[in-house]
Structure formats: C-alpha cells, structure tokens
Amino acid sequence: GCPACTVPYRYPTVQAAASARCTEIYLLEGTPRNLTLTNPPEDVTIRPISNGVELGFIQLRLDEGNPRSVWFEGGACEGFSAINADRRGSVTVDGLRISGVESSGPVGTVAGFNISVRNCRFMDNTVTNDRQTGILSLREAQDFEVVGNTFAGNRVGGEDPEAISGAMYIQGDLSQGLIAGNLFARNAVAAVDGAGAFYADSGVRNIRL
C-alpha cells in the first residue's frame, strides 16, 4: 500500500483507499458527501485538507475481530456515527464541526469500545423528533472519552415535554467513560426535568467528570 493517499483523485472513496492499505487518507474537493469506513486492514488517519470538502454523514465502524485504530481529524459535516465492537480497537473523532443541522435523531452517535470525541464543535443544531437522545448520543459506550468539545445553542425535542436531554445523552448499564473540559452553553430541551448539558440513564454508574 501507500503511506498517504487522496480521495477522490487517487481513490474514489475512503473505503477504497483503506482497502488499498493506505494509512493516511486526505480528502480533497470532490470527495463523496457521505463517507463510510468499515473494518480497515490497517490503522488509518483521515483528514480533510481542502475548504471545498463538503461532507454529509460520516460512518466509522469496527466489527469484532478488527482491532484497528481509526482517527478522523478536522473538517465539517452534518453528522457522524462511531461504532466499535472490538475491545482492542479504537475510534477517535477530533476537531469536527457540526453546525446548523436539523435532524430527526442525534447528529453524533457513539457505541461500543474505546471511542473518543475530542475538540469538536456542536453549534446551533436541532433534533426534532427523538425524545431520548441528545445532540451527541452515547449508547452502551465503554471506555469512552468526550473531552474539550463545545456544545452551544443546540435544541432537542422541539416543544415535546418528554424530550429529556439537550447536548448529550448517555444510555445503557454498560456505559462508562470520561467527560471533561467541555463547554456547554445555551442548550435547550423541552422537558421541565430535562438537562440542557447532559442526561444519564439511571442504570449508568461509572462516568468520570
């Protein structure tokens, strides 16, 4: 393979570049809006390096038996999911910007093992239909890190009084991890007993702040 590769010029997609064993993938103007990476054969870092890169939804996934390190660094998109079923693998989303998105569900979803969301900006987003969610949703996430992010001006649930979490929602008895150094400002949720910053289900026991 090659140590550094570009999309879409050398390879049409991130998945194609990773399958060719690229370890550094640079996204240029013309990159397909929706980006999917599943089970790369090598550790890989993905970086948008052109202002013309306009990404829609980013999906990063490691299945059990694929202990790789996936790092997505920088750029802007309309949402992402980071799912890792392998205890020895890791997924990091670093420096991503999600702003002004209206969605029926969370704009960021984290599930599984060893996932970090770092230095991201979640600004002025709206989740319209999902009651038990946040702008960032962590579901059965183990050994996660949510560090150094900004959550500002987000709203969840419209006028639904059942909507319980604004910026972040933590769900599942297995969820455990670190939440540190984040800025929460002007996040809103309709429920009187809801939480603008983050809400953890009653079964969640091991969160470090």
Give a structural overview.
With 209 residues, the protein is mostly beta strands. It is 3% helix and 46% strand. The chain contains one helix and 23 strands. The protein has one helix at 14-19; strands at residues 4-7, 24-27, 35-38, 44-48, 57-62, 69-73, 79-84, 90-94, 97-99, 102-103, 108-113, 115-118, 121-123, 126-127, 136-147, 150-152, 155-156, 168-171, 176-180, 183-185, 188-189, 198-200, 206-208. The chain has a 15-stranded parallel beta sheet that branches. Strands 9-13-16-20 form a four-stranded parallel beta sheet, with no helix packed on it. Helix 1 (14-19) links the parallel strand 1 and strand 2. The radius of gyration is 17 Å and the shape is globular.
The ordered string of helix (H) and strand (E) elements is EHEEEEEEEEEEEEEEEEEEEEEE
Q: Given the helix and strand composition, which structural class is it? A: mainly beta
Task: Give the end-to-end Cα distance, rounded to a whole number of Å.
Answer: 41 Å
Helix content: under 10%
The pLDDT mean sits at 88
The largest pleated sheet is described as: 15 strands, parallel
- Shape descriptor: globular
Q: Which residues form runs of ≥5 with pLDDT under 50?
A: none
Instruction: Give me the number of helical elements.
Output: 1
